[in-house]
Amino acid sequence: MRSIYIIYQKALKKYPIRTQAVQAGILMGLGDQIAQNFIENNSKTIDFIRTMKFAGIGLFISGPATRIWYGILDKYIGSKGHSVAIKKVVCDQLLFAPTFLAVLLVIIGLSQGKDIERLKIKMSNEYNDILINNYKLWPMVQLVNFSLVPLHYQALVVQSVALLWNSYISYRTSLDKYK
């Protein structure tokens, strides 16, 4: 186990965005599996293609975007202090979260084969509720994250908590899949 940790540390230092993209892909795929196996509780077979799409979104979009965003916050706002953490949370929740959530929902909808009209309907029906639920969870997570966690681990903390969040997103975005 120690050797995995050492390999992870080296990869994180040498390739921070790639490493965090891979971990986001793994955790988003796992979140989809949790949704399929435990939340949706379908007796149907598992949709591995859906899981791979979620993993791909984590690998190519979520992981890189969050790591780059945290770097921007760190560069322009700072890295230490309670007032810095509060400023980061405010920026994160007012700028990044609403935009990223919209992008995420559109990409998931497109990966499910929804056309523009169905995407508009889905967004108008789901976006506000998901954003409100975002505000119930993420501000406190981010306050702890930005206050206590070094930059190179912030994406890991978020992606770990996002394991449950991604299960929720997977569940919510799949609700009308079979209608």
Architecture overview:
This protein is mainly alpha-helical and 179 residues long. 86% of the residues lie in helices and 0% in strands. It has helices spanning 2-14, 16-39, 48-77, 82-111, 116-148, 151-174. Helix 2 (16-39) crosses helix 3. The model has no long low-confidence stretch (mean pLDDT 91).
List keywords for this structure.
single chain, 179 residues, mainly alpha, 6 helices, 86% helix, globular
In short:
About 85% of the residues lie in helices and about 0% in strands.
Round the Cα radius of gyration to an integer and report it. 17 Å
Round the mean pLDDT to the nearest integer and report it: 91
Gross morphology: globular
Contiguous helical run count: 6
Low-confidence spans: pLDDT under 50, at least 5 residues? none
β-sheet strand percentage: under 5%
| Beginning-to-end CA distance, first to last residue | 45 Å
**Derived structural class:** mainly alpha
Number of strands: 0
Q: Can you write the helix and strand succession as a string?
A: HHHHHH
Percent helix range: over 70%
Describe the sheet with the most strands.
Answer: none
Topology, element by element:
Blueprint: H1 2-14, H2 16-39, H3 48-77, H4 82-111, H5 116-148, H6 151-174
Helix pairs in contact: 1-2, 2-3, 2-6, 3-4, 3-6, 4-5, 5-6
